[in-house]
Amino acid sequence: MVETSPQEVLLNHGRWIGASDFAKLIANKRNVSERQARIDIRKAYENKEIKKHVFWDRTVIYGLDEFGPPTNETSTANFTNSQVENVRKALEESRCELAFFREPSVKEVAYRVGKIPEVVKPILYALAPETGWKEPDNNAERDAKDAINIAGWLLLREKGEQNYELEALLNQKLNKASKDTLRRAQAIRRNCPNLIPKVALDDIVWPEETKMRWHQVFGTAPPVSRPSSGVGIAFPRRKNE
Questions:
Q1: Higher pLDDT, 99 or 228
Q2: Among 234, 30, 241, which Cα is nearest to 38's?
Q3: 68, 108, 147, 229: which has the fewest C-beta neighbours closer than 10 Å?
């Protein structure tokens, strides 16, 4: 067996590898073009020296019997950089279009990429630990309402207004909010300042544009404004009281 044959290269690699990465690895080992490397890979496969597996999303990987069965986890790790970046860009554009009120669905991202959902889905899930993306669920409207309101609280803090009771109420709301809600609220604060509600101790007022955007995103009437009052909060006494 030639030391830099596809079979030997795979053996040294020790696990399944995507077609593109495999060609680059062989080209580097043998100092040949990637085109020649692909020819060598095809010959090795035809001679049954190596194994090939094609996933449902058309991702191709190569390996050996001793590597065990290929998995979808391997598949998601072997998309090209351009595929990953296209999905990443489409995800952020879709989030912006939805005003960060909720996450876009697989179908919405796929439509923007111009690919079928079956191709885009594994890439979205592979990027999820980095991007925080998840499929929208039945709590999407509740989470969006919380994020919009917290965006208002964050803006109030940035203004630096000295109000003891408001600060205490803000800290309570931030402590109760999930990481996902805080991330969404911060995105609304950065990217959609015109949609941020006005917060006072006894009320939260949504701009009309926020209500209109809510209807566009969810197809439902916006939630009824409720007082933001600190009823039930035990405010510590000031020193001079």
A1: 99
A2: 30
A3: 68
